[in-house]
Amino acid sequence: MPSQPLVNIWIRITSKIVKYGFAVEYRDLEPPRTGIFDGLRLTVDPDVDFEMQCFILLHLFGHSVQWVAPSLAEKLGPLQKTTDREAFMKVLHDYEYEAARFGMQLLHEAGIRDYDQWYSDFVVTDWQYLERYIAPMMDPEARVVAAWKEAAADLGIRFISPFVAPSVAGLKHEYLGLVHMFGGQAGTLIRVLREPSEKSPDPTGDGYYWPFVRQTRSAVRHRWQSDLLRGLLRHQVKSRLTMRRWVQRKQ
User: Fold this and answer.
1) Would you call 98 exposed, middle or buried from its count of C-beta atoms within 10 A (0-12, 13-18, 19+)?
2) Whole-prediction pTM value?
3) Which fold has domain 3-137?
4) For the stretch 58-87, what's the b/e string if a residue is b when 16 or more beta carbons lie within 10 angstroms of its beta carbon?
5) 9 vs 103: CA distance, rounded Å
6) What is the pLDDT of residues 34-83, one digit of tens each?
7) I need a surface site. Which of 44, 88, 111, 243 has the fewest CB within 10 A?
8) How many of the other CB atoms lie within 10 Å of CB of 53?
9) Which whole-number Å values give the CA distances from 95 to 62, 98, 247, in the listed order?
10) Is cis: bond before 203, omega within 30 of 0?
11) How many helices (H) and strands (E) does the chain have?
């Protein structure tokens, strides 16, 4: 889109957003985040392409309305409590497209009615991105691996996934992951209850710690719990283990 129409869109929608009581700010955000909201302000990363900034601002406004409007509060419950993957994706779709409609409404209130298709195209692309990102993260084992990778970076420990080692049967087996020098002399092998890794064969040697990870989850926040984390992390490290939300682009 030419720059002048974008400047016009930006000026008009920011004016409307501020008049609705929200602040608009630029801030350097950690990738892959391009924009965030907290119910009071809408924040956009200045390194994002200006056309994308215009869409992000409209979409974040829609999400902000969802979170602060009392009449919409009940709709957030299913988003936070649904754990079935298929049901969750439907709830997420409805949530995202409702936010998109509020963004479109703001665009019209700002007197801009010639760019509905432009905005709709961005909405579809945004949803396609979420589908690609969220679907793998709904897989319990993938989320455990992602959590351990984040923990390794946060705590300064080494984590390899996948990890190949000989089993007691003498055959090489691909394990979900190994936390080096953690829990046992060789390290901790990761497996998840009620998932394929639960049936992984015992490794050869006595130097491995071999716990089961139990999971609890909600649609908004994932926090993995296990005896390993509750014990070893509490006594061996001081740094707090933090986990990322399922929509990194919005929280």
Assistant:
1) middle
2) 0.58
3) Arc Repressor Mutant, subunit A (1.10.10)
4) bbbbbbbbbeeeeeeeeeeebbeebeeeee
5) 12
6) 999 988 999 999 999 999 999 999 999 999 999 888 777 777 777 766 66
7) 111
8) 20
9) 10, 5, 12
10) no
11) 8, 11
